[in-house]
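Could you please consider the sequence and fold appended to this message?
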Amino acid sequence: AVVSTQSTGRELDAIKSNCNLVDVRQPEELVHEFPAISGAINVPLGELEGRIGELPKDNVVFICRGGVRSARALGIGEQAGMIEPRHLDGGMVAWVAEFGQHQ
């Protein structure tokens, strides 16, 4: 399933506070152009299969810079038996374009 930035700001705030955000970018990416969202868990995509057991089984939304890696992470989460994982369509690029920088 996909979370779109076309959702309302209230819906996205609810996702941010009620979901387990998993940022699949590399750690060095989290301090540059699009900093990490507060409370997000960082598990780089290349480590995800080996670390999937560390993550919650439900209410997971994968995020990355542009949506490509989070879409791959979504597939990994589904194969691992996560309950309805989602990813942010367009990633942080779309989030910042729609809502500006975040905390």
Q: What stands out?
A: DSSP finds four helices and five strands in the chain. The helical segments are 9-18, 45-51, 68-79, 91-99.
